[in-house]
From TrEMBL, chain A:
CDD domains: TM_PBP1_LivM_like. It comes from the Bacteria. This is Branched-chain amino acid ABC transporter permease. The chain crosses the membrane at residues 6-25, 37-63, 83-105, 112-130, 161-179, 249-270, 282-302. It is found in: Cell membrane. It is a multi-pass membrane protein. GO terms for molecular function: branched-chain amino acid transmembrane transporter activity. PANTHER family: HIGH-AFFINITY BRANCHED-CHAIN AMINO ACID TRANSPORT SYSTEM PERMEASE, SLR1201 PROTEIN. Pfam families: BPD_transp_2.
UniProtKB/TrEMBL annotation, chain B:
SUPFAM superfamilies: P-loop containing nucleoside triphosphate hydrolases. SMART domains: AAA. This is ABC transporter ATP-binding protein. It comes from the Bacteria. Keywords: ATP-binding, Nucleotide-binding, Transport. GO terms for cellular component: plasma membrane. It comes from Pseudotabrizicola alkalilacus. Gene3D superfamilies: P-loop containing nucleotide triphosphate hydrolases (3.40.50.300). GO terms for molecular function: ATP binding; ATP hydrolysis activity.
Length: 314, 239
């Protein structure tokens, strides 16, 4: 079997398994899986910036929240329907990433982390400050009219799962295509050696800005979908926690692997879900798992697997 | 012959250090031009100014008559000025193919795999496409670096100490390769290995303390007293 066939085989198999899961799993887990798939889209976006292009951002919550509010606010204030609201959310995430990138990409490394963190914090405080528009820290419930997409009621299990699945599948296949495209190769080149890439004729600023906007589009789509599928928009989603989460998913699953973000989101979600059933100190277990990861598989699960056995894994 | 690259009064100081100090230079179309000088003479700084890696303090650089003094480095590459690094600077974690493909696709090559195969064949690395660049021997990494430069199909190729670390057999192959590139490509060769420079270069520029000490054919340079002094010390001239 050629590498190309293997790559497509594995990714389509994962999608088929996820599709089948809704018929095989109990309803509780189906809802969880919908949530995980949306969060995985967020993490895939993070992975485009961090895993492939080497941009370690601590501000992705801002792009996620931009998508969520970009969808939610028009539904609330302008009574938009779900489809245009969803598109508005997607674009808001990309636009926010573009604006932040124009400024933050003048820095690199640790400074870039701090600048993106500050932007996200400013965004969070802005949401609180404008509470008559945004609902402040209480947030708001997305109106019923904004949760019916193409005739399907997203508040019910099957349409919700399917909507999450379609978004996830689109995100996954697009990401697979992107990282195997010529531009994907340039993103990796930027991560590996910026100066060398410049001397091959690539403009580092432009490449990084493009990658960050793509990343923001993913985050925006995920934020908008999250608000729409689960019916709530709130400032919690703009906190630092939501910048850290996609990073953890990516690190756990494998930075710079297409399936890593999903695997990381899946494992982390259930790690928290299961351990919090036994102890209040579930974060301790999460921490222990991360220490183990750093010690024994610093490249994440799929990153390690690729290094040891599956060289062809994208 | 017309000048491809011309520099006038090129200057770059680092604090009190006059790394490049009012250099006039011209690279003629289709020549192999050697750039030599004692350690610290400013050779690498000078070509960094030409390639745009370091901003110019004063002076003018033209490429085929067009002022490129303030053009960013990546745009100079697009205009056909390629630079290969003194310290091997391949992407060690990417495959040999990807390393060269990055160069080929940068200039919009229609058939990237064919371009990669061609560049690898030129430097004699055919068949190593799928190897990870960082696992190649040092000499092969130097050749890969050159292949990346060639895949850009530059009109000017600046080679910064290309034979450093090559075995003598590899150096002969390298000389043949460089000869095969002219006159389509103009070569600026910074080299410590005098045999290589004297053998290859049509003309040589000698830098010392950031200034041009002499320009001429290899024979003229060999006979030049000032050059001998710079390399062997002032006493030699007196004695």
């Amino acid at each position: 079997m050629t590498d190309r066939a293997k790559v497509w085989g594995v990714h389509l198999l994962v999608l088929a398994a996820l599709f089948a899961a809704q018929f095989l799993l109990p309803s509780y887990h189906v809802t969880n899986l919908a949530r995980i798939m949306v969060l995985a889209v967020f993490a895939m976006g993070y992975n485009i910036a961090f895993g492939y292009t080497g941009l370690l951002s601590l501000g992705h919550a801002l792009f996620f929240a931009a998508g969520m509010y970009g969808m939610g606010l028009p539904v609330w204030h302008l009574e938009w329907l779900s489809l245009p609201a969803l598109i508005a959310g997607l674009l808001a995430g990309g636009a926010m990433a573009g604006v932040v990138g124009l400024l933050a990409l003048r820095t690199a490394g640790v400074s870039f982390m701090i600048v993106t963190l500050m932007f996200a914090q400013a965004g969070y405080l802005t949401l609180l400050y404008l509470n008559s528009w945004t609902g402040g820290d209480e947030g708001f419930v997305v109106a019923r009219s904004g949760r019916v997409l193409l005739g399907f009621d997203l508040a019910t299990d099957t349409p919700r799962f399917m909507a999450a699945f379609v978004l996830f599948a689109a995100g996954l296949l697009l990401c697979l295509w992107l990282v195997r495209s010529p531009f994907g190769r340039v993103m990796v080149a930027m991560r590996e050696n910026e100066e060398r890439s410049r001397m091959l004729g690539y403009d580092p600023f432009r490449v990084k800005l493009t990658a960050l906007i793509l990343s923001g589009l993913y985050a925006g789509a995920a934020g908008a979908a999250y608000g729409m599928l689960f019916g709530y928009v709130g400032a919690t989603f703009a906190t630092i926690q939501y910048s850290i989460l996609p990073m953890l998913y990516v690190l756990l699953g494998g930075a710079g692997t297409v399936l890593g973000p999903f695997l990381g989101a899946l494992l982390m979600f259930y790690l928290i879900d299961i351990t919090s059933g036994y102890t209040d100190a579930y974060l301790f277990v999460v921490g222990a798992a991360l220490v183990g990861l750093v010690l024994f598989a610093p490249k994440g699960i799929l990153g390690t697997l690729r290094e040891r056995a599956l060289r062809w894994l994208p | 012959m017309a000048a491809v690259i011309e520099a006038k009064g090129l200057t770059r100081h680092f604090g009190g250090l006059r790394a490049v100090d009012g250099v006039d230079f011209s690279l003629e179309h289709g020549e192999i031009h050697g750039l030599i000088g004692p350690n610290g003479a400013g050779k690498t700084t000078f070509v960094s100014l030409l390639s745009g890696r370091i901003p110019v303090q004063s002076g003018v650089i033209t490429l085929n008559g067009e002022d490129i003094t303030h053009l960013p480095a990546h745009l100079r590459v697009r205009k056909g000025v390629a630079y290969t690094f003194q310290i091997t600077s391949v992407y060690p974690r990417l495959s040999v193919f990807d390393n060269v493909a990055l160069a080929a696709q940068s200039r919009g090559a229609a058939d990237v795999p064919a371009e990669v195969a061609r560049a690898l064949a030129q430097v004699g690395l055919t068949g190593l496409d799928l190897s990870i660049a960082g696992t190649l021997s040092y000499g092969h990494q130097r050749l890969l670096e050159v292949a990346m430069g060639l895949a850009l199909r530059p009109s000017v190729l600046i080679l910064d100490e290309p034979t450093q670390g090559l075995a003598s057999g590899e150096i002969d192959g390298f000389k043949a390769l460089i000869r095969s590139l002219v006159p389509q490509t103009t070569i600026l060769l910074i080299e410590h290995n005098m045999d290589v420079v004297m053998d290859l270069a049509d003309r040589i520029t000698v830098l010392n303390f950031g200034q041009v000490l002499a320009v001429g054919t290899p024979d003229e340079i060999r006979r030049n007293r000032a050059v001998q002094d710079a390399y062997l010390g002032g006493d030699h001239a007196a004695g």
